[in-house]
Design a protein that fits this description.
By secondary structure, this protein is of the alpha/beta class. It has one domain: Metallo-dependent phosphatases (Purple Acid Phosphatase, chain A, domain 2). Helix content is about 35%, strand content about 15%. The protein has ten helices and ten strands. The strands form two sheets. It has a five-stranded mixed beta sheet, covered by helices on one side. The chain has a five-stranded mixed beta sheet with strand order 4-5-6-8-7, with helices on one face. The longest helix is centred in the middle third of the chain and has 19 residues, at about 80-100. It is globular and about 50 Å long.
Length: about 250
């Protein structure tokens, strides 16, 4: 069984399909560990979750956008007005349109998101988590909000990486995280970023970048086309579509 990891496709069904096809993923036999945020941004959240549900050996982790979507669609939960507004601006409106304005999320899809784990540790001691974790305590004691939202872990180790300070987090063989786009740290960093034994897998699919998938054992990387070009009429979370961007450049 081959093992792959990806993260943060944000409604980009076409990109997810490209990555799975380009790496030769076998839905019946291979394993996909997805680090969260399949929802919000590009227009095909519904199709994206359908695709993930077709994968037999899937490990799906909770992302902060997934949590937002759960709060919106689970009638037993209450979403604060200011949080609702922020979610809509950060891609939630595209998720709503994907399922139909005023309509519920498919029950199987909501159950899928609600069943997501906050982290995963493989049998060979590799850690997978959406945002990061508190190295001062066991991960099982780290708050959910830290695991899916907090960037302290990434910021601290990225600073060490940029200062060329060698480090190794001894607790785990390797650590894979998403949440923070590599192109937000350095616009030229379009590939997954390796820092010590940490790999940042989010290459900006929600914005101007592409989606990446990595073979966990061989470290080979495959990427989709830039999502802006796959959805040229849609803004995603950029505030401007590829179509409009090209038109402005030609003026």
């Amino acid at each position: 069984m081959k093992r792959f990891v990806t993260s943060d496709s944000h409604g980009g069904y076409k990109a997810l399909g490209q990555c799975l096809e380009r790496c030769g993923f076998d839905k019946e036999h291979d394993q996909l560990i997805y680090l969260g945020d399949v929802v919000d941004g590009w227009p095909e959240t519904k199709a994206s979750i359908d695709l993930l549900l077709s994968i037999k050996n899937l490990v799906y982790l909770l992302g902060n956008h997934d949590q937002w979507a759960i709060y919106y669609y689970d009638t037993s939960l209450t979403m604060k007005e200011n949080e609702l507004e922020l979610w809509l601006l950060q891609g939630g409106s595209s998720t709503i349109k994907s399922y139909g304005i005023g309509k519920p999320m498919d029950k199987a899809h909501l159950a899928f998101l609600k069943g997501a784990k906050c982290y995963h540790i493989s049998e060979d001691n590799q850690l997978f988590v959406h945002a990061g974790f508190d190295t001062a305590k066991p991960i099982a004691e780290t708050e959910e909000s830290f695991l899916i939202w907090n960037r302290d872990f990434l910021t601290r180790h990225y600073t060490m990486h940029m200062q060329k300070t060698a480090f190794q987090i001894e607790t785990y063989k390797e650590i894979y995280i998403g949440h923070t786009p590599t192109i937000a740290l350095d616009r030229e960093q379009t590939q997954p970023l390796k820092m010590g034994n940490i790999t940042l897998i989010d290459t900006g699919a929600a914005f101007t970048g592409c989606l990446s998938i990595v073979d966990i054992d061989t470290k080979e990387v495959w990427q989709s086309d830039k999502l802006m070009t796959l959805y040229p009429e849609h803004e995603g979370r950029n505030g401007m579509s590829w179509q409009n961007m090209q038109r402005d450049l030609s003026v």
